[in-house]
TrEMBL record:
This is DUF2939 domain-containing protein. Keywords: Membrane, Transmembrane, Transmembrane helix. The chain crosses the membrane at residues 17-37. It comes from the Bacteria.
């Protein structure tokens, strides 16, 4: 009888050990999965999204290279503008492009400050509003960044997830899925990201800004049609 009790106690102890090990393994898997997730671009994109909601510029700037983004986006926007303008011939467009290059440092600095202002306050302020004493027309005072947001509906787009990631020699290109409910349209915005020392990622370039912009205009055209 005593021997049977020992066997039963032994079985009970074994079950407890098995259960404990199983729990530890599950906890370890959970932590391991979380640590892996923290090292994915998707996690850093979530941090960026949270930083905008929290109006946390320090957190935002850690994961977004605003200067680099502004530099590359400026070139794409100038190219888009010149392609859309049908009033200028090729020579005039070339002159306009060269003039834009001279203005680039000043304008990209304005883009950077506009992004910072939006992250910190949740809105864009009118450019030079204080300098002109509020005498400029509404169109003159509008912020170019705000205009682009309106044209692309970017402030109303919903992030639907990371569609793909592709590594190359200088980082990783992440394809973000975006959905515009008002136009019932889906887009992909491809961004280049580099990994930081702590395993998180930093955005430094939009790879397909022109394609994204053209896709939004096409979606608007289709809805009107």
């Amino acid at each position: 009888m005593e021997e049977m009790d020992k066997q039963e106690n032994g079985k009970s102890w074994n079950k407890k050990i098995i259960a404990l090990i199983a729990v530890i393994v599950l906890i370890a898997c959970g932590i391991g999965g979380y640590m892996y997730y923290k090292r994915t671009p998707a996690y850093s994109l979530q941090l960026i999204q949270d930083s905008v909601k929290e109006h946390n510029w320090e957190k935002f700037s850690r994961h977004v290279d605003t200067k680099s983004l502004a530099d590359s986006a400026f070139d794409d926007i100038i190219e888009i503008s010149l392609e859309e303008d049908t009033t200028m011939d090729a020579q005039t467009k070339a002159l306009a492009a060269n003039f834009a290059k001279l203005l680039k440092p000043t304008l990209t600095s304005l883009i950077e400050s506009s992004v910072k202002e939006y992250v910190e306050t949740g809105e864009f302020k009118d450019l030079d509003d204080k300098k002109d004493g509020g005498k400029k027309s509404k169109r003159q005072k509008e912020n170019p960044a705000e205009n682009l947001l309106k044209e692309t509906n970017a402030d109303k787009l919903k992030f639907t997830g990371v569609k793909s990631t592709e590594k190359d020699g200088t980082g990783t290109v992440v394809a973000m899925g975006l959905h515009d409910e008002s136009l019932n349209a889906d887009y992909e915005l491809k961004i280049r990201m580099i990994q930081l020392e702590d395993g998180t990622w930093k955005m430094n370039k939009i790879e397909n800004l022109k394609d994204f912009y053209n896709a939004t205009k096409e979606a608007e055209k289709n809805k009107k049609a």
